[in-house]
Amino acid sequence: MSSSSPRTEQVLSTLRLGRDVLLPLPRMVRPQRRIPLALCVALPLLPLAAGLVLAPPLQAQPTTRARPTVVRSVPPETRPNPALEAALREVLFPVRIDDGQGHGPDPGSDEGEMVKRTKIKAECERMPAPRYTWSRVDLGGDDRPEVVAQVLGPMVCGTGGCPLLIFREPSPGRLQLITQMSLFKDPLIVTERRHNRWKDLITRVRVDAGTGYYAELRYDGRTYPTNPSVPPAIPLRRAEPGTAYLEWNDKDPRAHRLPCEGTPQKRGL
Question: Which of 74, 127, 188, 192 has its CA 20 to 30 A from that of 107?
Fold first, then answer.
């Protein structure tokens, strides 16, 4: 058996001493502390706990059961409206006529309008043709009725409702968008109460299957609320009489197909 070197004997002698001898550690190495098991379990849960503390409270659903009183029901118009169809296409299928860097025809020019109609047609043909219902109702009290329209279809509607659009008609055949509302559930109730000289509107809001409430929509001087489920729309607190518009069902022939092209909307004042 070969003899051990002095260095080997020193190491073996040190190991025999067991726990009574502390081996020197390199300068950059620090002894690791044992983390308690409870802390190991709690650390991964800290982000979740912080999220629960910092997250805003869930909005309480309205408890109101007030319902409007329908004193009259006006059925949708039986004829399609080409000027409205042109306005709906522009709202539902917004397009750019330039290349994103300012290169293209001048907006409002004949060439620009032709390019816009071509692009709108291409976008419209990508989806199943939506339908629409429409009515005329004087909301502003100036004896110049506005045009209200509901757009229907699987690509534009959801469980919460469908788009509702309100236009004023400053000149025959030319429509100007006032409000584009999401989550509309027919019918549209038009009351005689007014804010900023325009009549208040009422519509249903779906919370979940079989649960909902009615919301009141007030004109703010420029537009109506665009979402009836959040402020500035407010839950209806008392029964309010009004006239029902745009009520329909799947078999109603007054739901018109929206064509992807047609007579362009008139320009100018």
Answer: 127
**Residues spanned by the domain of 166:** 69-257
DSSP 161: B
Q: Name the helix (H) or strand (E) containing 111.
A: helix 110-124
Distance CA 224, CA 203 (A): 12
Q: How many domains does the chain have?
A: 1
Contact 167, 147 (CB under 8 A): yes
In a 10 Å sphere around its CB, with 0-12 CB exposed, 13-18 middle and 19+ buried, how is residue 235 labelled?
A: middle
CB contact burial 200-218 (16+ within 10 A = b; e otherwise)? bbbbbbbeeeeebbbbbbb
Encode pLDDT of 28-51 as tens digits.
Answer: 445 555 656 555 555 555 544 444
For 249-269, how does the pLDDT look when each residue is reduced to its tens digit (9 = 90+)?
A: 766 667 899 999 876 666 554
pTM over 0.85: no
Domain membership of residue 58 (yes or no) is: no
